[in-house]
Design goal:
The chain is mostly helical and 307 residues long. It has 17 helices and no strands. The chain has one domain: ADP-ribosylglycohydrolase fold. Helix 1 packs across helix 9 and helix 9 runs parallel beside helix 13. The structure holds magnesium ion. Magnesium ion binds next to helix 3 and helix 15.
Length: 307
Amino acid sequence: MDPGALQPKFRGCLVGLALGDALGAPFEGARAVARAEVFAAAERREVLRYTDDTHMAIGVAESLIACRGFNGRHMAETFVRNFEREPWRGYGPGPPRVFRRIKCGTPWDKAAQDVYPGGSFGNGAAMRAAPVGLFYHRDPEKLREVAYLSGQITHAHPLGKEGAALEAYAAALATVFGPSGSSEDFLARLKAFVTEEVYREKLDRVGHLLGTADAAAVAARLGNGIEAFNSVPAAICCFLRHPGSFEDAVVEAASLGGDADTIASMTGAISGAWLGIGGIPEEWAARLENRVYIEELALGLWEAALA
Ligand SMILES: [Mg+2]
């Protein structure tokens, strides 16, 4: 693919990630809501503020750019520094405890297991994984390796890391194949990529949900909680149900309730990569907090990935 044609996809991915996060944020932990409520909540806000999901994805992008690839210690220290500057972004209870250990000298790849023996399978590694997908879009096996390693910083359970790899790979595929590729082929490639049975089974269910008009069935059949094996397939499903419309995909994800900001953020990253920045409503993008910086990071990732 022509490198120049990829640039709007990188921008779409990161702006889409942050916008999905901002649009879903009012509904985090809530019941399912109607589409109109998601639009109305966006309308009411002058600035569309993002949460920890985007804040950590920014850290991933900053570190990949600075190191021209993955460096675990650098990425962990970037997370710690960013958290200390803006601890009010809505972080869950786990990451700050991991960050304290890293600050006290626990190695970056050991701190998460100290906090959660056996590792966490929450979606905290997946929610920030799209920049890994952009950076390694040409090399799925390297993408998988870095998704696992970058996930390990906070989420050491194999299902948490697999969720990160799946979200990163979905963003990479969308970058390369959208918007002219086929949804069936996209889903088949995801199924061939995953190594954990629970994800393969969830992706089978995604296939069945593409033909139904009922958005409530997405949460009912896939789950909308913080577990990576629920929320990552739910995010992919919302994208695949509306591949031609960023608005429809992200609003559906935000309307599911549950971990709405994270699900909408993961949907937004994939949809933005698929459609490119031109597919994202400017009326929303213009009100996105730190939009200029987020687009700078997308360009930095693009330059570094294609170097
Ligand atoms: Mg959040």
